[in-house]
Design a protein that fits this description.
Elements lengths: L9 E2 L2 H12 L20 H14 L5 E6 L2 E6 L18
Antiparallel strand pairs: 1-3, 2-3
Length: 96
Amino acid sequence: MKNKMAGTAYDLIPSQQTMHYMLKYSLHKQVMQIPMSLTVSEKLDFDTLQKAVEIECRRNDCMRLRYFKEKGQIRQYFTPDCKIGKIPVVTFKTKE
C-alpha cells in the first residue's frame, strides 16, 4: 500500500516499540483495540456529531496518527486534517 504521508515521518518511541514487539513475538495475542458502539434513544443530529468528532480529532493528535512500514521498520506520521465523512448508522429494530 502506498503511503499518503504529507509531513515528517517519525520512528516509534520506546513504549510503542515495546507494544510492537509484544504483538509481533507473543504467542498469545491480546486485544489492542476496543470496539465501541453507541445506543441512542433520542433523536440525534448526525451533522453536529460529525463536526464534534472532527473538532476532537483536530485537538487530539493521536487520532490523526498513521503508521506505515518503511524498509522493514514501522514509522508514523500525523495527517494534516481529520475528515470522517458521513457517519454510518446501523439500526437493529425489530417489528415487535
